[in-house]
Design brief:
The structure holds 2 protein chains of 2 kinds. Chain A is built from no helices and 11 strands. In chain A, β7 (about 60-65) and β8 (about 70-75) form a beta hairpin. Chain A has strands at about 5, 10-15, 20-25, 35-40, 45-50, 55, 60-65, 70-75, 85-90, 100, 105-109. Chain A is an all-beta fold. Chain A is globular and about 40 Å long. In chain A, strands 2, 4, 5, 6, 9, 10 and 11 form a 7-stranded mixed sheet that branches. A 4-stranded antiparallel sheet of chain A has the order 1-3-8-7, with no helix packed on it. By secondary structure, chain B is mainly β. Chain B is built from 1 helix and 10 strands. Classes of the chains: A mainly beta, B mainly beta. Chains A and B meet through β5 and β10 of A and β5 of B.
Chain lengths: ~110, ~120
Amino acid sequence: EIVMTQSPATLSVSPGERATLSCRASQNVRNNLAWYQQKPGQAPRLLIYGASARATGIPARFSGSGSGTEFTLTISSLQSEDFALYYCQQYITWPPMYTFGQGTKLEIK
Amino acid sequence: QLQLQESGPRLVKPSETLSLTCTVSGGSIGSSRYYWGWIRQPPGKGLEWIGSIYYTGSTYYNPSLKSRVAMSVDTSKNQFSLRLTSVTAADTAIYYCARSGPPMEEQYFDPWGQGTLVTVSS
């Protein structure tokens, strides 16, 4: 099983500043990585797939980078609606054994 | 716009079987050639993939749950279902259904249903 490790567990950032979230895979997943945002009481929402492609309707302030085992989600200028939980997910394995990171909580500083 | 909606009992007794159905609207399971999956999230915890099913009925399960999980698809009703046997309190979670990619393409999950909280308790 590929273990996904996100850091930090909690990130405190002020509105308007940049936030950088990390995700590390225990094995090479190439670019088979997605990022999701989850707000309280809501289902996760796809932000990024293929490590760097923004999903439909996702603002340009969200960007993903990385390949192999190290990935980053960057939010360039935090808006109030961006404070939420963020999860990464790998989907390289076949047959499927998809795994998620444990999440990073992005909170207002 | 594709939408997914989970339905089923919200309370299940220990040792019994959890059964959920996901109804898809705004698109056809049978003609869309996508995989359809179940993911769960214990209260206050992270996400766990349970399994995925293709419109043909081909299934893949998380090895940690494989002995207790069964998924099925009903293309005539545009639904797919989850059964989890011998449940314990550890199976208490929000259960989400979601669409993932076509075979041999990227398997991220989008969109998701709103989720349904299933509690295992006597």
